Amino acid sequence: SAVISQKPSRDICQRGTSLTIQCQVDSQVTMMFWYRQQPGQSLTLIATANQGSEATYESGFVIDKFPISRPNLTFSTLTVSNMSPEDSSIYLCTVRSQATNTGELFFGEGSRLTVL
Amino acid sequence: AQSVTQLGSHVSVSEGALVLLRCNYSSSVPPYLFWYVQYPNQGLQLLLKYTSAATLVKGINGFEAEFKKSETSFHLTKPSAHMSDAAEYFCAVRNTGGFKTIFGAGTRLFVKA
């Protein structure tokens, strides 16, 4: 298993500002995934972050809005830029199990952002 | 491309009754299938997973799921619901050889006393 820590755990932000979420994993992993869980909805993959390369974004998500850094194998950041109330969500950093072929995901408790 | 459909955004059962949460998937290659549970104000955790080793999979807290290829289904069941089972349940799929996990919309389970 992997233990994932995210900061901040929650924040209230003003419209137009940006916030950076930090994700720390207790073991080295190749891929880290960023998901968004909007209120009452399922998880949507934002991007996949590999160490040493640009993140790969899913349809509907762009680097200018959600820049991602992956400086090493245990750490990543996601920035939510120029926030609007529609960005109010839980943002989740996840990693896949590297001990099994199935690659189930490990989750932290996420970062709950409220944009006013 | 893979996808997951969970039938029923809300399911309500009485304590002691059978729990059945439905999940259908679409995948062009043999999939890995998962059920995750999210208890109130907690992160998601793995409930069980299908790996092709056995079609009937047992998970934590008495839950199990059966993989039916002909029906492209992976429904989650528990013979007797407990109040502590009240949570949001997500079905998810990942293609073998792929790296993205796709989640269903989720089903919120309510358990009545």
Structure description:
The complex is a heterodimer of chains A (116) and B (113). In chain A, strands 2, 4, 5, 6, 9, 10 and 11 form a seven-stranded mixed β-sheet that branches. In chain A, strands 1-3-8-7 form a four-stranded antiparallel β-sheet, with no helix packed on it. In chain A, strand 4 and strand 5 form a beta hairpin. Chain A is globular, with a radius of gyration of 13 Å. Chain A is built from no helices and eleven strands. Chain A has 116 residues and is an all-beta fold. With 113 residues, chain B is mostly beta strands. In chain B, a hairpin with a 4-residue loop joins strand 7 and strand 8. Chain B is globular. The termini of chain B are far apart. The model of chain B has no long low-confidence stretch (mean pLDDT 92). Classes of the chains: A mainly beta (116), B mainly beta (113). At the A-B interface, strand 4 and strand 5 of A face strand 4, strand 5, strand 9 and strand 10 of B.
Number of strands of chain A: 11
State Rg of chain A. Answer: 13 Å
Q: Strand-and-helix sequence of chain A, N→C?
A: EEEEEEEEEEE
Poorly predicted parts of chain B:
none
The proportion of strand residues of chain A reads over 45%
Q: What quaternary form is this?
A: heterodimer
- Provide the low-confidence segments of chain A as ranges: none
Task: Tell me the number of helical segments of chain A per DSSP (H or I, 4 or more residues long).
Answer: 0
Largest sheet of chain B: 6 strands, mixed
What's the average pLDDT of chain B? Answer: 92
Features:
heterodimer, A: 116 residues, mainly beta, seven-stranded mixed beta sheet, four-stranded antiparallel beta sheet, 11 strands, 51% strand, B: 113 residues, six-stranded mixed beta sheet, five-stranded antiparallel beta sheet, 0% helix, 57% strand, globular
